[in-house]
Amino acid sequence: MKKLIGLTITLPLLAGCFDANNVQNFDEAEVRLGELVQETIQPSRIENQYRANIKLSSTNLLELLPDINEYTMSVDVRDSARTEAVEIFTSSEKAGEGVDGIYVDLARQFNAEQFELPNGKVGQIAIRRIASGAAASFLLAGQNVPDGYSPSNLLWGQMLSSQGVELTEIARQTAPNVAGVVVQDDKVDQITTNGDLDIQKLLTVVTSGEFAMGYTNPYQSSTGLNFLLTVLHAFAQGEERQMLAPDVASAFEAFQRGVPFVAQNTLQMREATVGSGVLDAFVMEYQTFANANGLGGYEFVPFGVRHDSPLYATGEADENERLVLEAFAQFIADNRQVARQYGFNQNPSYQPAYELDDGSVILSAQRIWKDKKSGGRPIAAMFVADVSGSMDGDRIRALKIALDESANFVSSRNSIGLVTFNDRVNVDLPIREFDLQQKSQFLGAVERMSAGGGTATNDAILVAAHELLNFAKTHPEHKLTIFVLSDGETRNGLPLGDVEKVIQMLNIPVHSIAYGFESADLKKVSGLVEASYTESSTGSAAYQIGNLLNAQM
């Protein structure tokens, strides 16, 4: 305020002139947020009135599978007059680079030996890097089925076989590994007995809210799937036939109330949690733990079934291709001593904590998780969509398709709103229960999106948070979350460095998907409150957003 000749003049609050990071708690952050939104950002509120037609048929993730070439060929060989190329879908910890490249390095060494087949051709191994759950989805859909499949654990093979997918076990163990709970040193005794995981202790402290536990999406992550089944098996007191019983589902729902974060994969989990210290424990494979930086002060406690990377031949593999897979499995066995160099085979004495006889239980367990993962609380979410000029063309078209298709993953008991942004922010749709009318208006707003202007990402996130907090005043039972979909770094509005403390203190997870680029800012903002950050091409946008909503909504 300035006084001039007896007059009081109110000066507008200018971006960059306000120390928004000088906040110490939620109440202070909420006050700062209101000032920023109302005085600095000043969003428009042109609410969409157009209602789009709603598809009455449901969508599942198998329908949204992207082109297989969205997944990298780590070793790329092709069939020829002299070559029998055998492609294996291989999980990420084996098909990457360096310590994550055991299959890549062994495949190249195997290929150099020129394994000769009875038909005179040379057998060669091709490696495609694809997460176990995503690979299982392609096999379930019968789409782009490879010759071989090596998930992290046997659970995926059991599940696929129970659904009629033809798999032949070539090797039960190729890269010995285990899954575990990574727990802060001073919390180990809360979940262990004599150094071993005490699942009943874990269930008790998480359910009571005394212990913050995070894990990964069991539709995509082998470790997440193993953890889900471990929990259900414990609630069923070791009786497989009781794992799907209503009382077990209810107990799992109560457990979920103590779980603040479910990441898409263990890499996201580690990036979102290490450094923040908010979670007392989270899940990870030992090979990743052994090779990770920043995990001093944490202990690894194994759980569930082993993660030994079995190798299967699929129904696509003919006799010669199976011979190549068998020869490759033998080559791996002959070179088993190298596994330790990559962080594998560090826990040879660990025995599985449970075994399943019926693989169909796994699919049913995933459905229980989908239904109960919010812990009985409805969710209120704001979608924050980038409509800046760089989104014009294929990107805005892909975003529209992705949001249209993935809207079917949102339960009608949840509440949804929409904010769009370029250099300005607009509230296209206030938060309301996602009934047919709200869904129709949401899809109508998506259909009418057009691209142009700059990129004020952080302004839009703050507006979304403001909308959610206002909604929560009359709907305190809802869990709050934000989904940001953007293709570029912030060029306009408030820089992240000026407002990150406000976002962090509000404690609203900001899940983000970056289109076609790596965003340091989006990764950072998602890491402020244990949320997921995902990079996506336009071709895989619908699948990535569908996965995210399947995990969070």
List the helices and strands and how they pair.
Elements: E1 2-4, E2 7-9, H1 26-41, E3 73-75, E4 83-90, H2 102-112, E5 115-116, E6 122-129, H3 132-141, E7 148-150, H4 154-162, E8 167-171, E9 178-184, E10 192-193, E11 196-197, H5 199-207, E12 213-216, H6 222-235, H7 246-256, E13 261-263, H8 266-273, E14 281-285, H9 286-291, E15 298-306, E16 311-314, H10 319-334, H11 360-372, E17 379-386, H12 394-406, E18 415-421, E19 425-433, H13 436-447, H14 457-474, E20 479-486, H15 496-506, E21 510-515, H16 520-527, E22 533-536, H17 541-552
Parallel strand pairs: 4-6, 4-7, 12-13, 12-14, 17-18, 17-20, 20-21, 21-22
Antiparallel strand pairs: 1-2, 3-6, 5-6, 7-16, 8-16, 9-14, 9-15, 10-11, 18-19
What's the count of strands? Answer: 22
Q: Which descriptor suits the 3D outline?
A: globular
**Helicity level:** 25-40%
Tally of individual helices: 17
Describe the structure.
With 553 residues, the protein is α/β, with parallel strands linked by helices. The chain has three domains: 18-47 and 377-552, Rossmann fold (3-Layer(aba) Sandwich); 68-175 and 309-342, D-Maltodextrin-Binding Protein, domain 2 (3-Layer(aba) Sandwich); 178-307 and 351-372, Periplasmic binding protein-like II (D-Maltodextrin-Binding Protein, domain 2, 3-Layer(aba) Sandwich), CATH 3.40.190.10. The protein has helices spanning 26-41, 102-112, 132-141, 154-162, 199-207, 222-235, 246-256, 266-273, 286-291, 319-334, 360-372, 394-406, 436-447, 457-474, 496-506, 520-527, 541-552, and strands at residues 2-4, 7-9, 73-75, 83-90, 115-116, 122-129, 148-150, 167-171, 178-184, 192-193, 196-197, 213-216, 261-263, 281-285, 298-306, 311-314, 379-386, 415-421, 425-433, 479-486, 510-515, 533-536. Strand 20, helix 15 (496-506) and strand 21 form a beta-alpha-beta unit. Residues 380-553 form the VWFA domain.
